[in-house]
Amino acid sequence: MNIKKLAEQAGFVMWADESWKPEGAIIDWSSNYDKELERFAELIVRECIDESFEPLEIIDSERKI
Q1: Residue 27 pairs with which residues in a beta bridge?
Q2: pLDDT band at 58 (very low <50, low <70, confident <90, very high)
């Protein structure tokens, strides 16, 4: 799971190469991210669900259920 990619998909503003960028910062936290935080949580849950069902599909196909 790529958390940075999910944050970008959720709409967080990411730092680029600005000279005033705090060292090591990825997300610019100067905005109100209420909507983006909800979307981020949704994306994480969906990613976890997708990852958890993938092995079951493989097992089921091997058992021919």
Answers
A1: 14
A2: low
**What ranges in the chain are assigned the alpha helix state H?**
3-10, 34-63
- Chain Cα centroid distance, residue 56: 22
Domain ranges of the chain: 3-63
User: In whole angstroms, what is the distance from residue 3 CA to residue 22 CA?
Assistant: 19
Give the residue from 19, 16, 12, 20 showing the smallest Cα distance to 44.
12
- Identity of the residue numbered 41: A
> What pTM was computed for the model?
0.71
